[in-house]
Specification:
Low-confidence stretches: none
Number of helices: 14
Structural class: mainly alpha
Helix content: over 70%
CATH superfamily of the domain at 95-312: MetI-like
Radius of gyration: 24 Å
Number of strands: 0
Strand content: under 5%
Largest sheet: none
Shape: globular
Mean pLDDT: 83
Length: 313
Amino acid sequence: MWVFIVKRMLATIPVLLVVAFIVFLLLRLAPGDPAVVIAGDYASPEQVEQIRRNLGLDKGLHIQFATWMGRLLQGDLGTSIFTNLPVTTLIAQRLEPTLMLAIGTILFSTLVAVPLGVLAAWKEGSWIDRSVMVFAVIGFSVPVFVVAYVLIYTFSLNLKLLPVQGYTSPFVDPSRFLQQLILPVITLSAIYIALIARMTRASVLEVLQEDYIRTARAKGQVERKVLLVHALRNAAVAIITVIGLGVALLIGGVVVTETVYNIPGLGRLVVDAVQKRDYPIIQGLILFFSFVYIMLNLIIDILYTVVDPRIRY
């Protein structure tokens, strides 16, 4: 198994290099000049050119890329153009809210979606099955920001039950932290629950047609044990896969959710950096998100060997 893990880790290196090259190229070829944005509307051409030289934008793309990669290999993601702070420092400052939101979303979505999917598969064709599928279609179709505004209007403005926006660290005020995290987690979980529930239903339905399920029932096993021990366990590989792949949706949803709820996380940092065309921050965040996504998929691959020992061979 260790050979498998090492091979998967080595395979992430060329993926990150390709991502770095694409990100660098897209940002440089995009319309607009960051030097003009920094200089302002009343700057002279000489001032704009001076800023371009200071940022190294007057050099060839291959020189800019080589310089950036050299710093990246040393753990330097660059320095923000506008705040003049290292990108790693900015990421560290904004990491906690995004991490708490992501962890809360994954836990809540999994705890809700997996039982719903199993129940829908068990009651195939019933009103329960149809209700779960209708919810899954709606959850996957409605944009995240629409869900957010509906929840804010209902629970914050009308019922006055939960705060509209903001973030408080759990180490400062745990109660306030939970209150402020409920709506963002539910908002971000809508599409994630829909995805996991549909895959769980499909996987469990397929497993329920297998011979060993009929054998377990014929031996007098209670239905709950058949569903949880035999069906769900054998369908776990597909469910774990969709949970890992859904992280991409989670990353995209974080940007919208943090913007709507005014959460000072990495999503808000992305929006601010794009508006200001702060190249170092955009590049650093995309690489950071890519690294997290690749590492999560590596963890998913390792979990395969735990859930299904046959994969080890």
